[in-house]
Amino acid sequence: MINRVVLVGRLTKDPDLRYTPSGAAVARFTLAVNRTFSNAQGEKEADFINCTVWRKQAENTANFLKKGSLAGVEGRIQTGSYEGQDGKRVYTTEVVADSVQFLEPRNAGAGSDRSQGQQPSSYQQNQPTSQQNNHTRVDQDPFSSGSGPIEVSDDDLPF
Fold first, then answer.
1. What is the DSSP letter of 62?
2. Which fold is adopted by the domain 1-35+45-107?
3. Which sequence spans correspond to the domains of the chain?
4. Per 3-state DSSP, what percentage of the chain is helix, strand, and coil (rounded to 5)?
């Protein structure tokens, strides 16, 4: 049996981080995932998918993602049920994430104070440069430093 899910979407609100009585972190959030087709009126629709992530990934998700953040989620679908206040059975479906990827820079988008570059001082002190994050700024050409052809020996080639 295979139960794997890969989603890319935007958070509909800030993640809700809580801790179990035993101290395990759990974060819940809803991901808005656009459908690839349009409805009869020509409008794009989205699905709103409840996601849960545990432990260190939960803390990272709560610390680095906010409403509107673009995220990738990989995990499994889990179903459950409980008895509602009216006595009727309520069925649930959620994605339990094994991995949550942050798909845009921390300061991208609008929203909370975090998007305004107001990180805690400890975060700013330990912030790696964009080159260390394997990000290349669009306005920086990584090949502009040389004025001639790039020298590559046969030993440098992977084939």
1. H
2. OB fold (Dihydrolipoamide Acetyltransferase, E2P) (2.40.50)
3. 1-35+45-107
4. 15, 40, 45
Residue pair 73/7 in contact by the 8 Å Cβ criterion: yes
Joined together, the tokens standing for residue 88 give 């009727």
Pull the structure tokens for residue 77: 């679908």
SS3 55: helix
Amino acid letter, 95: V
Q: Is the dihedral of CA 110, 112, 114, 118 positive or negative?
A: positive
Alpha carbon separation from 113 to 64, 67, 105, 106, 118 (Å, rounded): 12, 12, 15, 11, 6
43-50: average pLDDT: 93
Whether the pTM exceeds 0.70: the reply is no
Structure tokens at 61: 């998700």
Supply the mean pLDDT for the chain: 79
